[in-house]
Amino acid sequence: MTLFAVADFLSTAINPLFCLLLLGERKGLRAAWPFWLRAILTLSVAVGLAELGKAIPVWPGHKGFPSGHTTFAATSTALLFLRRGPRWLVVGVALTLIMMVSLIYGRWHSLGDTLGAVVLATSVSVALWRLTRGSPE
């Protein structure tokens, strides 16, 4: 297996892992629904804005800003942190960094594309969490 194949696998496999982490609520289904609805809203808005951003090329021929994969990963990281605390921030940041390195190594995105995605994801996550919850837990 080549390093490129590993990068391709990681850039594809990490976001489904985040979905499982977000669904893994221990407080019971009834208690988890409000969080899941906020998570769906937040992920939809963040990734939707990332995709809209691609309609405006940063420079001719470049339509990858910001990275949608990184936006999803960083938004998931923020949601895990806001819901479950700092311990999950470490897990999320590690997975997001692996995603970023994989996308850059595979030449699907630049460092700027992935950093822009992190800024977008963090901003949207905190703003929507505050709007829908009152303030971060």
Automatic annotation (TrEMBL):
Keyword annotations: Membrane, Transmembrane, Transmembrane helix
One Pfam family in the UniProt entry: PAP2
Domain Phosphatidic acid phosphatase type 2/haloperoxidase: 57-132
InterPro entries reported for this sequence: PAP2/HPO, PAP2/HPO_sf
Coiled-coil segments on the chain, per record: none
SUPFAM superfamilies: Acid phosphatase/Vanadium-dependent haloperoxidase
Bilayer-spanning residue ranges: 6-23, 35-53, 65-82, 89-108
Protein name (Swiss-Prot/TrEMBL): Membrane-associated phospholipid phosphatase
